[in-house]
Design goal:
It holds the Pfam family SBP_bac_8. The chain is an alpha/beta fold and about 450 residues long. It is built from 18 helices and 8 strands. The N terminus is likely disordered.
């Protein structure tokens, strides 16, 4: 993330959707159509149990209202508790007690959420959903979530338009309120850039590749020609691919829901750039979030990394104090987003009305700005971006880079991405099966592409 290193705990790695996402409550593999049937049938039987009255403690609070315990299910660290927002809400609403349940990794959390939806029980009053999963729920099960877009106090105009659209179902209902986003920049080592004869001022660095991810690779060729011994221009081709492909509105799916990744401009252009970087020996051939990648930060073995706002805290933690001031941040070639989540309220939640009020308050512009200040979650609210807590933010570790301005500018230019139910499956296989086989195993780009496509086709056919 952006300011305190501890804040990197939630998005410290790209979310990997485990095979269990496609399994029913008894572990059997389910295709998309079969998944919808199972969830719909099970929910029909389970809603009566899940939609009990507000319940809670029968006693009343000092404000005369019945006491209610609200449960919030999240993955990793969302920061609400750490930033004191739960405590503040409880003080403002004495009848409310908030209990957060956190699962460390989304690949464990999301399958469990699907299982609880299918059982119609065990659901929290508020359930967080990661951006790579929101479309699947909005497509298959929009009716199983409260339409929070119509809730009192929710203002569509206070959200970045593309973020609002991500949780919008075909019938118009909005199943989740945006929490944070991951606008991208490029983090770079000033000392290594200087040794390779490149500029180090962040404005000048940004100009080197402004407007085109291909220019970032051009800079990589310049760096590689004079690279300090034992260093590479970038960590790995996966980061380049993610940055490039995320700067397009259409990548894996067309607007009508058609699967187009095999021929989309975004995927093919980004794949070709990644292959060019590998062929030019510009990458450190590292898999992101592996131990070797962490060690690369500590040892200074690569000079740049495509970095969403939330990754800054991770870099600070892994690079350590010995590298303080060596890292800086420049604008990415084109605006792009990586990461972000939503707060949803299931229709089967026990305390729906109070849960909607809490979700609305937690995602309001003022709270988003404070969460950024305390925990560095970059706001999805356009109004938050104008608040001084965000707009004027700098990062001491990254040479006092004006991260509020850099990432706010990026956030405003991010295209409204066309999401699909299996974006995560497609992206993960193109990177882990495709790109990494070329980088780490020496396979040809053609063979690696075909291997990735086969994995994806097999997964989508289940």
């Amino acid at each position: 993330m952006v300011l305190p290193s501890a804040a990197s705990a939630r998005p410290a790695r790209p979310v990997t959707q485990s095979e269990a996402v496609r399994r029913g409550p008894f572990g059997r593999r389910l295709g998309t159509r079969r998944l919808a049937v199972v969830l719909t049938a099970a929910l029909g039987a389970g809603l009566l149990a899940g939609c009990a009255s507000d319940g809670g403690d029968a006693a009343t609070a000092s404000n005369g209202k019945k006491k209610v315990t609200l449960t919030v299910g999240v993955f990793g660290v969302f920061g609400y508790k750490q930033a004191g927002l739960y405590d503040e809400y409880e003080k403002q609403n004495p009848h409310i007690k908030i209990k957060e349940n956190s699962t460390e990794r989304n690949e464990d959390y999301y399958p469990a959420l699907l299982n609880r939806l299918s059982a119609g029980s065990g659901l929290a009053d508020i359930q967080a959903v990661e951006v790579s999963n929101i479309n699947e729920l909005a497509t298959l099960l929009p009716g199983r979530f409260v339409d929070v877009g119509k809730a009192e106090g929710v203002d569509e105009g206070s959200y970045l338009p593309w973020k609002w659209q991500q949780a919008k179902a075909a019938d118009g209902r909005v199943i989740g309120l945006g929490t944070d986003i991951g606008p991208m920049g490029v983090c770079y080592r000033k000392d290594l850039f200087a040794k390779a004869g490149l500029p180090t001022d962040r404005a000048e660095v940004g100009k080197l590749w402004a407007g085109d991810w291909a220019k970032y690779v051009d800079v990589g060729a310049r760096y590689t020609a004079k690279a300090p011994k034992g260093t590479a221009f970038m960590d790995g081709a996966a980061g380049l691919y993610n940055g490039s492909v995320s700067s397009y509105a259409e990548k894996n799916y067309a607007a009508d829901g058609t699967l187009v990744y095999k021929k989309s401009e975004a995927v093919r252009t980004s794949w070709d750039l990644a292959m060019r970087a590998v062929d030019g020996k510009m990458t450190g051939r590292l898999k992101q979030f592996d131990t070797a990648w962490d060690q690369g930060y500590a040892n200074g073995t690569f000079a740049s990394v495509v970095c969403p706002s939330w990754m800054l805290g991770y870099i600070k933690e892994k690079a350590g104090e010995k590298n303080a001031g060596q890292w800086d941040v420049a604008a990415a070639p084109r605006p792009a987003n990586w990461g972000g989540s939503f707060l949803t309220v299931p229709e089967a939640a026990r305390n729906k009305d109070e849960a909607v009020k809490l979700a609305t308050w937690l995602t309001a512009p003022e709270q988003q700005a404070r969460l950024f200040q305390k925990q560095a979650s970059f706001p999805s609210s356009s109004r938050s971006l104008e608040m001084p807590e965000v707009a004027d933010a700098t990062h001491e570790y990254f040479a006092d880079a004006p991260i509020g301005r850099i990432f706010s500018d990026a956030a405003k230019g991010i295209p409204t991405a066309i999401l699909g139910p299996k974006d995560q499956v497609i992206g993960q296989n193109l990177v882990d099966v495709g790109i990494l086989q070329v980088e780490q195993q020496g396979r040809s780009p053609k063979d690696a592409w075909n291997a990735a496509v086969k994995k994806i086709d097999d997964a989508l056919a289940d």
